[in-house]
Sequence to fold (210 residues):
Amino acid sequence: MGQLIAVEGLDGAGKNTLVTGLVERWTNAGMRVATFTFPRYGRSTTADIASEALHGSHGDLRDSVYAMALLFALDRADAAAEILAARGDNDIVILDRYVASNAAYNAARLEQDVDGEVVRWVHDLEYGRFGLPVPDRHVLLGVRPEVAMERARSRAAGDASRARDAYERDSDLQLRVDAVYRRLAEIGWTSPWHLYDGEDIDALADRLTR
Ligand SMILES: Nc1ncnc2c1ncn2[C@@H]1O[C@H](COP(=O)(O)OP(=O)(O)OP(=O)(O)O)[C@@H](O)[C@H]1O
Ligand SMILES: Cc1cn([C@H]2C[C@H](O)[C@@H](COP(=O)(O)O)O2)c(=O)[nH]c1=O
Fold:
């Protein structure tokens, strides 16, 4: 059964770029690799509704922390069978955002720590009730929040379809999300976490397959 690796980090941190680089290296080394990116925009109605809410639609939906978390969780629940099948067919399944995104963003929204109620709720809902597989490892792309926020800003400036959403425009939230992610990594939430500073992707690719 393939290894399940979740890549986490702030909006604009460079997760997608990192995942692309890792997949290229592992594929060139002869490994079979599958990728899932959450939220699954265009494939999941609940993911699309969450995104629309973050861009100002659906009334006061985005004000509800638990409703937003549930929409993202339902997207993943719908992908559970596909992830399990991919794990059977590949050496590595890499997830660009996963359950820890829900833990980090919603603890940050509620100004709770990792031992708070919402992190426990996300865990029980997604790993318990929905039966999502727990990653073997997490990677936290821990670039400085100012760097991630600047990347998200420039991306939006260069591409109208990537306009920043409510979370991306909220720099206090981004700082709190960064702090929660670092605590999740410190305590090894659900599995070991690798803190990656964005410097040496070859070394990271090796470390994750050792
Ligand atoms: N190492 C890097 N150096 C400079 N720019 C980068 C680096 N990695 C990514 N970027 C740029 O930063 C922006 C955000 O990158 P990317 O889309 O990979 O981030 P992300 O973490 O997946 O974002 P999101 O979660 O918001 O979708 C992009 O414009 C990308 O080209
Ligand atoms: C998967 C997931 C995402 N979020 C947050 C993180 C982002 O700010 C937005 C949208 O994600 P994207 O990567 O910028 O497209 O939603 C979340 O709160 N919970 C989740 O499970």
User: Anything to note?
Assistant: The chain has a mean pLDDT of 98. The beta strands are 3-8, 33-37, 92-96, 137-141, 193-196.
